[in-house]
Amino acid sequence: MGALAKWRWAVAAAMLLCAGLPAASAGPGQGSLRGYLPADGAAAGWSRDGGPQEFEGEDLYTYIDGGAEIYQEYGFRRAVVQDYRDAAGREVSLEIFEMADPAAAFGMFTFKRSGKGAPLALGGGAELEAYYLNFWQGRFLVTLTGFDESAGTLEGLKALAGAAEKGLGDGGDVPGIVGLLPPEGLVAGSVKYLRGPLGLANVYPFGTARGLAFEEAVRGVYDSGETLIVLGYGSVEARTAAGRELEAALASSGRFERPGNYAADAVVLKDGKGNYLAFRGIEGRLAVGVHDTLDWALRTAARAR
Amino acid sequence: MVRTIGRRDFVKTGAAAGLTMALGRTLAGADGGRKARGIDVAVGVGEDYGLAAGRAIEALGGMKAFVRKGAKVALLPNVQSRHPGSFTKPEIVRAVIRLCREAGAAEVDCLSWQPIKQWEDTGLKAVCDEEGAGLRIYEKDEALFKAVPVPGGLALKEARILAAYFDHDVLVNMPITKDHAGNKFTGTMKNLMGLNSPASDRTFHRPNWKTDPDDVAHLEQCIVDLNKAVKPALNVVDATEFIVTNGPFGPGELLKPRKVVAGTDRVAVDAYCAGLWGLRPEDIVQIKRGSDQGLGTFDPAKVVVKEVRV
Questions:
Q1: How many CB pairs (< 8 A) connect A and B?
Q2: With a cut of 0.90, is the ipTM above it?
Q3: A132 in B contact zone (CB under 8 Å)
Q4: Which of A94, B98, B123, B301 could pair with B90 in a Cys bridge, judged by C-beta atoms 3.0 to 4.6 Å apart?
Q5: Same domain as A112, residue A47
Q6: Which domain range does residue A141 map to?
Q7: Which pLDDT score, from 0 to 100, does residue B5 have?
Q8: CB contact at 8 A, A105 and A172
Q9: What's the CA gap between A185 and A179, in Å, rounded?
Q10: Are B253 and A114 inside 8 Å of each other by CB?
């Protein structure tokens, strides 16, 4: 056997060995995501139905036509989709999204959960809703969708999620900005971690303004009905400039007015639905308190850590 | 009957020749803003979604008011994903196909450039097969789209519309109303992007479409302009069970008003649907601009709504 032939054999043997390794050992963007899919029977009674579909980068638009932008905003890498079926004919679709980093996976998880479902002890966090389940683990977001709300389907969602979790490796840390929301009175499941204006538009309709080019943000809702949004700009200078742009853009949009007669060292605007927005700068961050009373809006903005 | 149509097939079957004849005339019944029987928005409400669709259309004067005997009818359902509440329900599409046939349609076709898998997964292919409707799936080939001028277009001077649309006499626009992460709302106007070429759709999104007010306005204006070039004879909207979060793909929270909403005024229909989950039409840019630019109205003093329980 010549040197070239030996080299080919060695490469082929290495590829066969790699094929047998757990997929979780692969780093970001390496190997196939198919290895993360639960095998037939890994969730008792559930088997794969058809083959997997895989999408990478911009290909996500072919799978989620018209809805891939939010994944891209958080930092999407790859996805694999596999359908499962049980003996009773119940179906579950399992999607594994590999994001850029654990913060992106956590963010998409918070974006997709309603906060009204049942929390589950799964991965870094999980929520079971009427017919679907989301959880995140490390840089992965996993979404399982059932096609009815029967007990059997919900059990299948949990069983398949548990099987998928085992292959996904270690968990990741929740982004530090989330800790700026004071925990007292924070409504469980209301936290949204945001990476861009599309996500922000889904938690408060600021509209568009150039001052919203933040690096990361977090939103929490409190039990007295107030909302606290913290926008992180990275530096005092960036936050100051963005704050000026944002105030000017909102004030001139025709959708906000400046209330008179308030004594506070904060910028305050009132939206068309009667909510007050109080803006307060803290180092490189801009805290926004939202409430239908001026006093609570100001107090909320002041609560950001 | 399913046909996947590429450029070669398209030319071979003579559709291109038909297109040449079809261009330059207005599609029959394509009067997007007129009231039907004095009603702007007709709503069928009930558990039987096919029947609800039928009752809504009946309130507008029946399918014969929109589909003439011998007409070729194009249907445009939404087949975005198989997740619950994200695609037009098969029973509604089935009901509309049957009503078109009863009205004397010579041909009823669903038009799409979405993959066949989505038609299979949503159950809509089965409906087409069972009802003898054509399922015309076109490749994403620019040669299969026709550039047409946009009358009064502010952002779009021309649209690139699926050429097969012009080979039909009537368009029935059949979206599901639902959430959209980008512009908060999907309805009749947004659904017409399903006839526009994917390459053209992408030009709706400028690089800073999420942050730059001008670029965002461009996206919404493109949707409104597209609606100036394509005027459905009838809109039948699935508002039975739909996602109000994580749209347009889902899965997300389901709202279940169990309504099928029909009408010719896209602005009025979309405004009604937006109101089903508490959105104000004036906050949805495409609805507001559609109203401002004469596509219809959402003025409660002018819009006549009729709800029929089944």
A1: 77
A2: no
A3: yes
A4: B123
A5: yes
A6: 26-166
A7: 63
A8: yes
A9: 14
A10: yes
